[in-house]
Amino acid sequence: MVVNMHEAKSTLSKLVELAQKGEEVIIARAGRAVAVLKPYRETPKERKPGRLKGKSYDMSRFDEADATIEKMFEGSAD
Question: What's the whole-model pTM score?
């Protein structure tokens, strides 16, 4: 669909709805195409395996007590 600039200004909401439905709208000025209104398609970012290598923590000992932390919270038993 081709519309002139004046019509595009007046009916922008309607044209956006058409674009959301998949129709490509060409906006023209003085009979020459100057812009295209088409639906936005978000492209997923490329996954890169190993990107977090070395940035994660070993959580296997998470629940084990740490003597230093115990002393800070409970005080020294000495």
Answer: 0.52
Tally of domains in the chain: 1
3-state secondary structure the chain: CEEEHHHHHHCHHHHHHHHHCCCCEEEEECCEEEEEECCCCCCCCCCCCCCCCCCCCCCCCCCCCCHHHHHHHHCCCC
Are 7 and 29 a contacting pair, CB within 8 Å?
A: no
Specify if 6 maps to a domain.
yes
Structural domain boundaries enclosing 15: 2-37
pLDDT at 27: 96
